[in-house]
């Protein structure tokens, strides 16, 4: 069964056709959404052995990022990958714009603790170099790789032999000129059509180990493009708002787009693209999945926004709590409240909480006030009770 149509009748273009004249495959039936609310799609495996990460099917939505170091600088790149891994990144992508970068891939792929995807633009020969280097997957951008369509047969053969998945990554800024001419701009239909066209070329050579992304900087355009893909194919989808910008703008745009799509069951792996250190992308991606119930939260801080009733520096206290519990290894919901109106009640809903004011804090554990301490002792007291909760195994059951 072809993943581009789940068995539905479609007219697929031959490799001799132009993408500008190819139709988007017919949508699948609503049964393509699983009983768990996730879109039904095929499952691929990125990487091998203990480092393998499943994407699609019933696998959890994974978080990935991309290094910002020159890939040719092996030590710097591996150091950044280690930092990303420690932050919770599951898949990492590295840019391969030069031969020096391609030459560095074997060492990086071998030493990285998480699967490494080679990001290829312009030169198709680097696709083969990445496969030979042992990369876990290869991302190709058909819109800017020279004579890409003519290389599909060779790429499919090499990737199949090495069991390396291919990500077809379509970007609004590098869309095939023929599709730009047809649609006038990078519309959702143009983005989806480009990806489906390239997928059909791989299918003609019997290769289906694909995942797809169709990225745009505009949230609504990006969402619409993925919705088209979700109905037209059964490949796993990599979600991303490209060029989303710096925080908080980039986080807001990515959250808005991901929430719409993931709530529909659309999306199998995500990257929050930020003009910021890549560790921040990972933190944001994890937080998005946690807030949507797609990942078990490690730490959730419930804190009030503040008002004229505050009798404590709430923002400073919240920052102190966040810093103190940043590396806490157990799921925990901590409430930080500075208001006598809602504070006690809200704090009682958390595993652990404080309602602070007038230089002191009431400490709550599982809804019960356990002690009142001076403001200077709030953090150490919270940590003490958090450790007791962890030791007893009574952390937040739904966190």
TrEMBL record:
The keyword Iron applies. Binds 1 [4Fe-4S] cluster. [4Fe-4S] cluster binds at residues 304, 307, 339, 346. Pathway: Isoprenoid biosynthesis; isopentenyl diphosphate biosynthesis via DXP pathway; isopentenyl diphosphate from 1-deoxy-D-xylulose 5-phosphate: step 5/6. Residues 300-385 form the IspG C-terminal domain. It comes from the Bacteria. It catalyses: (2E)-4-hydroxy-3-methylbut-2-enyl diphosphate + oxidized [flavodoxin] + H2O + 2 H(+) = 2-C-methyl-D-erythritol 2,4-cyclic diphosphate + reduced [flavodoxin]. Gene3D superfamilies: Dihydropteroate synthase-like, Sulfite Reductase Hemoprotein, domain 1. The keyword Disulfide bond does not apply. Its EC number is 1.17.7.3. Residues 1-30 are annotated as: Disordered. Residues 1-12 have a biased composition (Polar residues). Keywords: 4Fe-4S, Iron, Iron-sulfur, Isoprene biosynthesis, Metal-binding, Oxidoreductase. Converts 2C-methyl-D-erythritol 2,4-cyclodiphosphate (ME-2,4cPP) into 1-hydroxy-2-methyl-2-(E)-butenyl 4-diphosphate. Belongs to the IspG family. PANTHER family: 4-HYDROXY-3-METHYLBUT-2-EN-1-YL DIPHOSPHATE SYNTHASE (PTHR30454), 4-HYDROXY-3-METHYLBUT-2-EN-1-YL DIPHOSPHATE SYNTHASE (FERREDOXIN), CHLOROPLASTIC (PTHR30454:SF0). This is 4-hydroxy-3-methylbut-2-en-1-yl diphosphate synthase (flavodoxin). It comes from Nonomuraea rosea.
């Amino acid at each position: 069964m072809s993943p581009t149509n789940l068995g539905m009748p479609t007219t697929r273009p031959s490799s001799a056709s132009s993408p500008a004249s190819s139709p988007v495959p017919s949508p699948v039936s609503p049964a393509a959404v699983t009983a768990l609310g996730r879109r039904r799609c095929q499952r691929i495996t990125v990487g091998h052995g203990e480092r393998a990460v499943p994407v699609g099917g019933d696998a959890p939505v994974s978080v990935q990022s991309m290094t910002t170091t020159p890939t040719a600088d092996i030590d710097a790149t591996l150091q950044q990958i280690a930092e990303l891994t420690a932050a919770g990144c599951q898949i990492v992508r590295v840019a391969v714009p030069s031969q020096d970068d391609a030459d560095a891939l074997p060492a990086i792929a071998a030493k990285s603790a998480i699967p490494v995807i080679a990001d290829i633009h312009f030169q198709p020969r680097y696709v083969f170099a990445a496969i030979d280097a042992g990369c876990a997957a290869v991302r190709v951008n058909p819109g800017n790789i020279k004579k890409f369509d003519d290389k599909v047969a060779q790429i499919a053969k090499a990737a199949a032999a090495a069991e390396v998945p291919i990500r077809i990554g379509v970007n609004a800024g590098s869309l095939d000129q023929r599709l730009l001419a047809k649609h006038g701009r990078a519309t959702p239909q143009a983005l989806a059509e480009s990806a489906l066209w390239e997928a059909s070329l791989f299918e003609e050579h019997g290769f289906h180990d694909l995942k797809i992304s169709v990225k745009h900087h505009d949230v609504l355009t990006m969402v619409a493009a993925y919705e088209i893909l979700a109905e037209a194919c059964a490949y796993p989808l990599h979600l991303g708002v490209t060029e989303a910008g710096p925080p908080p703008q980039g986080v807001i745009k990515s959250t808005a787009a991901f929430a719409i799509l993931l709530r529909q069951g659309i999306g199998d792996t995500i990257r929050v693209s930020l003009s910021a250190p890549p560790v921040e992308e990972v933190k944001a991606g994890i937080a998005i999945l946690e807030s949507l119930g797609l990942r078990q939260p490690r730490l959730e801080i419930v804190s009030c926004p503040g008002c004229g009733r505050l009798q404590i520096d709430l923002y400073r206290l919240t920052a102190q709590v966040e810093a103190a519990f940043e590396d806490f290894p157990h799921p925990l919901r901590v409430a930080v409240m500075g208001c006598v109106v809602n504070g006690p009640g809200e704090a009682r809903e958390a595993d652990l909480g404080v309602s602070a004011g007038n230089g002191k804090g009431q400490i709550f554990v599982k809804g019960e006030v356990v002690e009142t301490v001076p403001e200077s002792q709030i953090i150490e007291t919270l940590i003490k009770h958090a450790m007791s909760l962890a030791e007893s195994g009574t952390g937040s059951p739904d966190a």
